[in-house]
Write a structure and sequence with these properties.
Length: about 325
């Protein structure tokens, strides 16, 4: 779920036109989770083919991603690797919540249909098959992807810091803690429901009077995916404490009234994880190709029973932009 620092983050609206030509490192798991959560039947059932294989993520990738490609964005998806050991408790808790939501969803479909969708969303999970399907479709679409050794957002932020991407796309704010200069939210959300929002790390530092290391300490006090945080300390109080003492070490020495016996015991490890995350420097030169309409249609239409007409229209928009042709019937 990421760290909850929304109250001190300043968002700036933007539009697809302003992003044309820019390279965007996409937090793949975050985006796939969005697709799997939102693209569902009214009762919460995910889209699936006649064999029962989930296709909500593929639907999101082909239809929403081609809209971004048509607008001129150059996307590179970054996939999570092995999670940090510090995340074990969070992963366990999430799994338990999903199982509970799954049970409530089954009950709601019969007894409380209006509540079924929200429980279905809460039960969303990403497995190896979904990831493999996504990577295959991205390859056919000519979109590069990077396999991170650990946190995808950390790898995406590293790529942005190195100039290999200009923005990081994620719904979470963790990419700021990992050092992403600019994060964009709602890139894969329906345009009618959510506006594109930019968060600039430098602007945040300037308006809040804090540097990145202090922002990380604020997040640790509130709670991250790697620690619980101090009970009763929200983001505004955490900001006040850090602006007064500048770091957690000084807070521990000075704030006797705050119970720090639980929630931040591992703060040094968490801080180090954000400042020096496990990333790879050896990803290949990023290359974007022309979508292979034949392979895309074979995967989506023949294997997963997508509408050939609708897939063709999605591809046509991109291929016309790519090739500057009035007709692309020979490729479809």
């Amino acid at each position: 779920m990421g760290v909850n620092i929304r109250e001190i983050v300043e968002l700036r609206e933007t539009n697809l036109g302003d992003l044309s030509g820019k390279i965007v490192a996409v937090d793949a798991y975050n985006t796939l989770y969005q697709f799997l959560s939102i693209i569902r039947q009214p009762d919460g059932t995910p889209l699936a083919d006649s064999s029962g294989r989930t296709t909500s993520h593929l639907s999101g990738l082909i239809y929403r991603t081609t809209n971004l490609m048509e607008a001129g964005l150059k996307l590179v998806f970054v996939f999570d690797g092995k999670p940090s050991k510090l995340k074990a408790d969070v992963i366990k808790a999430r799994s338990e919540r999903r199982e509970a939501a799954m049970q409530k969803w089954e009950e709601a479909k019969v007894l409380f249909p209006k509540d079924a969708f929200k429980y279905a969303q809460a039960s969303t999970r990403i497995d190896a098959t979904i990831v493999a399907d996504a990577k295959t479709l991205l390859t056919f679409m000519g979109i590069p992807y990077v396999q991170a050794p650990s946190e995808g957002e950390a790898q995406a932020a590293y790529m942005a810091q190195n100039g290999d991407a200009e923005l990081v796309s994620s719904q979470d704010y963790d990419s700021l803690l990992f050092g992403a200069p600019i994060t964009i939210r709602n890139l894969s959300s329906p345009r009618k429901k959510a506006k594109l929002e930019l968060v600039e790390l430098k602007a945040l530092e300037n308006t809040q009077g804090i540097i990145r290391e202090e922002l990380i300490d604020i997040a640790i006090l509130v709670g991250t995916d790697f620690n619980e945080g101090i009970k009763g300390v929200g983001v505004k109080r955490a900001r006040k404490l850090i602006k007064k003492h500048r770091c957690i070490e000084n807070i521990l020495k000075s704030e006797a009234a705050i119970d720090t016996s639980a929630g931040i015991e591992n703060y040094r490890l968490v801080r180090e994880l954000f400042l020096h995350p496990d990333v790879t420097e050896s990803y290949d030169e990023l290359k974007w190709g022309t979508p292979d309409a034949g392979k895309i249609k074979e995967l989506l239409c023949e294997v997963h029973e997508f509408s050939e007409e609708r897939v063709g229209k999605a591809l046509e928009k991109v291929l016309i932009r790519e090739r500057g042709q009035k007709s692309i019937e020979q490729w479809l």
